[in-house]
Amino acid sequence: MLQRMVKVQVLGPKKDLESIVDTLYQVGTIHLEDASRSHEQGGIILQKVEAKEADTIAANLSKIEGIQLVLPKKPPDLTKQTEIIQILSQKGQESILERAQEVIHELEAKTRDLITRKTDLEFTIANLSRYQTVIEKILPIEGQIPALEGFEITIILIQGEFEGILELIKEKLTRITHNQCELISAPIDEDTIATVVVFNRKYSSDVHTFLYSQNVNELRLPNEYLNRPLNEILLLNEERRVAAVKEVLEVEEELRELSLTWQDEVAVLARLLKDRHEEIKVFNKFGQTDYTFVMLGWIPRKFLDSTKKTLHERYGDSVVINELPASPEMMDEAPTFYDNPAFMKPFEYLLSAISHPKYREIDPTPIFAVFFPLFFGLIVGDIAYGFIILGIALLLKKKFGERLDWIHPLMNLMIIASFPTIIFGYIFGEFFGDFGENMGWLHPLEIMGVTWHRLDALIPMLVLSIAIGVFHIILGLSLGIINQWTKMRCTKYVCECRKHICEKAGMIIVIVSILILLGAIIQIIPEILMYPGIVMLIIALALIIYGGGVIASIEVISLISNILSYARIMAIGTSSVILALVANQFGGMMEVAIVGVIVAALIHLMNILLKMFVASLHSFRLHIVEFAPKFSEGGGKLYNPFGKGDRG
């Protein structure tokens, strides 16, 4: 359900503003609204509150987070972190910023130098590895390279498909060096040609500028490699690479030692500064006079008394929370606060994919919590599948729930949906399809004269699916009438709401009248009731046309389509049964028993994973496409309290 909200005004002495804001941040119940614009209330002009520390805190937070990012991760010492928090809390808010600046002074330059050194070394190692790869490949053509005093060597790599460009490069280099150059080429592999360029050193700048302009891959050897045999270069290159790797390890060890000493305190400071920044950055939403500040916002009714009590205990009568009279128009802007039991939270997560309901609307979460598992269970409907889905959900939740935020609610959804799957599996007599029935373990139940074997009871399953659709759509339209009735409290919406109520009531009467007419035609109710059914249909069409115009009458066809869409429950469920039967029959055809078991198990596993996705998708679709539009306008503003606690 959605919690009742109260519009409040908080008044207090400006000298205690930061302390009061800190208290409200710890309480975490007020959804703040902007009171910062200069305006006049009762002759008092309110001015915007300036947050002087905001930029300083943001700058220091950025530096602390940068240090935290550089330090190697280690398991947090929660005891040590708690002690640090207690020490800093006793000293006050100013001490947090002061200590952060001390830590930054101690670590920023040191960590920056270490990480820069490490980056440079890693770049050097990458280059040395590249040199080694290329030199090893041009080693066979070493004998063709002339050894001349005052000459420089560079290597260019050309893709084989562009081999023709070498002639152009040679012509240009010959002109640049006045014929004092030599090019020796050899294929390195199928796709690459290495070309060693030997040229007079006095033309070095012009040669490298030209090669750069041609966008060729040039491998410039370090000066200490020049005029050395390639074998000697390889040995020197390896020595340098090993030394660089060793130095990287030394840098990493220094960073680890810093992490062991500082990471817990850095983590605490980052968290406290972030909290403080969250507090400070809302200051521009407050209004002020010379001696007083004003906050505006919303509080759930259930938290109002406790919030008042906390402020009174700390500040006495100097801080006041006034409940402001809120008109229906103002309440239309109140934030939406879901307040449902824990088992409904996964359905709130599911509903976050669409627009939140407005404050005055009915919370659809409890309805989703009933019908989503019902649809899922009807579609899958197998005892063994239900237990396996339960096991998969528990396993994924345990393994990935902490690392991936979306896994936890979705797996809780699967856990809840697995129970109706097991129950309907018992009703349908399904355990790995017909395996349980073939073994004599269970049989489909007979309810209302129907034996609920899904392949034999296709028509009853279709009727059941459509009946659920009729009920679900009528429920949605009824909720829509309630929402519109509530909305009528805003006088500007009265005419609009009356029309919507008539339209939705007309839709309900259309459904009922069609059911009466069908019942009379197939003679399951007295034929005389056909005439009241026709009258009801005429009245319904009149209401629909009054509420939504002639075009709205066409929506009757869409309404019937919405109801028929629930037939997918039967259709998708039947496909699940058929695939389970295929698994059993295909496995039974194998001559080797163990092979048959493996084949059947793989097909069943595929069916389970497929149905987990398909049943979830179509259950969600029936709610979002067919059901929710009948009553939900959406566009609600989610309750987002100022504070560190997650109340919404």
Q: Structurally, how many domains make up the residues?
A: 4
Helix proportion of residues, in percent? 55-70%
Shape: extended
For the record, give the distance between the C-alpha atoms at the N and C termini, rounded to a whole number. Answer: 12 Å
- List low-pLDDT spans: none
Task: Give the amount of beta strand, in percent.
Answer: 5-15%
The number of distinct helices, counting runs of at least 4 residues, comes to 19
Strand tally is 13
Alpha-carbon Rg, integer? 37 Å
Whole-number mean pLDDT: 86
The structure class reads: alpha+beta
Task: Tell me what the structure shows.
- By secondary structure, the chain is an alpha+beta fold.
- It folds into four domains: 5-50 and 283-331, Alpha-Beta Plaits, CATH 3.30.70.240; 52-137 and 230-280, subunit c (vma5p) of the yeast v-atpase, domain 2 (Up-down Bundle); 148-226, Alpha-Beta Plaits; 426-630, no CATH class.
- The chain is built from 19 helices and 13 strands.
- The chain has helices spanning 17-27, 54-70, 78-91, 93-138, 165-176, 204-213, 230-280, 301-315, 328-331, 345-351, 365-380, 383-400, 407-428, 435-438, 458-487, 494-521, 530-564, 568-588, 593-627; strands at 5-13, 31-33, 39-41, 44-48, 151-159, 181-187, 192-200, 217-220, 287-288, 292-300, 320-323, 446-447, 450-451.
- The strands form three sheets. Strands 1, 2, 3, 4, 9, 10 and 11 form a seven-stranded antiparallel β-sheet that branches.
- The two termini are 12 Å apart.
